[in-house]
Amino acid sequence: ISLRGCMLGTVLGFAMSIITLKLSLSTGVIPSLNIAAGMLGYVGMNSYCRCAGIAMNLTKQEITVVQTYTVAMSGCAFIIGFGSYYLAMDERSWEATGSDPSTRSEIVRPSYGNVIPYAFCVCFTGIFLLVYLRNTFILDPRFVFPSGSATATMINSFFTESGQALAKQQFQVFCKWFGLGFVWDLWAWFYSGGPGQAECGFTSFPFFGLKAYEWTWTFNFEFNYIAVGLLSPHIVNYSMLMGSILSWGFMWPYIKDKAGDWYSDDADGLRGLLGYQVFLSIALIVGDGLYNVGKMLLVGVRSLGQSKQDERSKAKREEEGPGEDEDFERRKRLFLDGKIPWPLNFFGYLACAALGTFIIPRIFHGCTWYVILAAYLVCPLFAIPNAYMCGLTDWDMSSTFGKLILFLFATWCSSVDKSTGIIAGLATCGIVKAGTSQAATLMQDFKTGFITESSPVAMFYAQILGTIAGCLLSPVAFFIYYDAFDIGNPTGEYPAPYAK
Fold this sequence. Notes:
The protein is mostly helical. Helices cover 71% and strands 0% of the residues. The protein is built from 20 helices and no strands. The chain has helices at 3-26, 34-52, 60-79, 91-96, 112-122, 125-129, 134-139, 146-158, 161-189, 210-213, 223-231, 234-257, 273-305, 307-319, 324-337, 342-363, 369-393, 398-416, 421-451, 456-484. Helix 1 crosses helix 20, helix 13 packs across helix 18 and helix 16 packs across helix 17 (369-393). The longest helix is centred in the middle third of the chain and has 33 residues, at 273-305. The chain is globular.
């Protein structure tokens, strides 16, 4: 871990936090940024050495540390819930979901005073959860961790002659499209209507006709949404396209025509059309989440049944002679030599749980200490299967687990005090979501370090340093958006769909 690496990681992490927030506040879909962080880390360190006039004594480990630091820092913008559960506590989200007077007392105004302490309480839990099981996840060939493996392969290629030429070409393409996107957004800004008039100009072009325009069928010519579509899997793109066509093309216009029959003509909020939109969507999300949890358990049981066959295959490969296994054994020795003391993990987790149990009830009134403690205790139960699925499929299910916890704990707290169930459910949702996501991210980084032959101890401390920077700087990036734009407005530029 070097000072220049941490400085570069901070710059890249803050830039990627801005990107993460823009996507989470607009679409809610955030693709993996691991590979981009690795490429920009290499190019940034290379450029720094050239500008400083010093020898380019770069190593794979230094680039891997920069990538780990960057991803940990930018990931805080996601796991703190700036586009989901934390934003759902504010007054704008309360207004967007019907302004029910009975829940007005459960409004929390976002501020540095509550978000930074809360971030330090929830963002470090996942770092200490699964370090003890890292050998199981990293050394088992079944757990590929696709994003981590792809990032490591790219970093390894940078230290070959052909890889350096490829990195230079990639950066040139990156600069070209970055410049094109910047110039286009600047050009489109001149034709916008200014604050409070987002539905005009290129940001809301009636490409499908004026009738369709009434139901938000517009095109905004924003390259970042196109980029998300390029990075997201086909199943995500097709599913979102189908959902858009079914809902805004057929269902919502049809339900709106039923005003006066299915619901009162003058009904607003959750008692009107919004109620159909919100609860139908929630039902689909929770149903899909329960299905995937069951599917995950089935996959786990089947994989355990195949463990003996995998061991026989491994023994057979060893009998056939050396080859790629020599590289594996060398990486294995380097990985096992990096000892992370178990008391650090154990007492680190206990310290996070104790700190959160003490501080969170004082930040969010209505959250009792035993509810917060229960959330910390169940966090490992979700972190292990989440890392398992992430290793097999690259699928982070932390949001799904967070939604399940939200319903369970909000119901529990509401049964005790009906005036505090919402905030308590959202706060505990954040504990589980942040812990499970951070644990899976660290396993991805361990896999990258394993393939690039980097020290796991360096990866571990880079994750901690990046998380510290993220807890301090991600709120700064969030409040840039929150103070400048109408966040949470369903018809605005940043509707924050998951907060709604």
